[in-house]
Design brief:
The chain is α+β, with helices and mostly antiparallel strands. The protein is built from five helices and seven strands; from the N terminus they run βαααβββαβαββ. Strands 1-2-3-4-5-7-6 form a seven-stranded mixed sheet, with helices on both faces.
């Protein structure tokens, strides 16, 4: 999938080096609970696992082909009512924040979800304090549906996650169909 400034490709084992760097930066854990790999070997295993998932994509810059983020569609469940729904997760290297790159990546992957794999709904869970991601989802057409409180395993506070929904008829971007 190719956009104006980025393209999405499958993960490769060598992406483990970048995954390891992201895992060492606490901002990615705080904002999105990104996996904290203990070493480069574990991160390479993580990249290999991502490569095996059919709807996991590395976000790369068209300018220099550098891995700058990731976006993934997850199954929401095996019951018949959930088979045509998915959840999207995403992360962008902080050096590339506020440049419209994640908006482009989400539009590409949402178009793919609706038009290539037949999804009817795309859900996104975002921590309540992640204002940039919340604003991004709203720009694309996601609508707030509900909030869930999770106990924080690392402190005594509760973490609140907002859930947003996008249907193909709510998109604020042009679908390819």
């Amino acid at each position: 999938m190719i956009g104006k400034k980025i393209y999405l490709r499958r993960f490769i084992k060598e992406d483990g080096e970048q995954l390891f760097l992201w895992s060492k930066n606490p901002v990615y854990f705080e904002k999105a609970r990104f996996t904290q790999y203990k070493d480069l070997t574990a991160a390479r295993r993580g990249a290999t696992l991502l490569a095996e998932r059919k709807n996991s994509f590395a976000i790369c810059s068209l300018e220099n082909s550098k891995l700058i983020g990731m976006v993934e569609l997850y199954e929401r469940g095996a019951s018949p009512s959930l088979l045509d729904t998915c959840e999207v997760g995403f992360l962008l290297d902080e050096k590339y924040w506020h440049q419209g790159l994640m908006k482009e990546a989400l539009e590409l992957v949402c178009d793919y979800a609706f038009n290539k794999i037949g999804m009817k709904e795309i859900w996104a869970g975002v921590f309540q304090d992640n204002d940039a991601s919340i604003q991004l989802l709203k720009k694309i057409g996601f609508e707030y549906i509900y909030q869930v409180s999770y106990p924080n395993l690392f402190s005594s506070e509760t973490k609140k996650e907002n859930y947003y929904l996008l249907r193909s008829d709510n998109c604020k971007f042009t679908l390819s169909c």
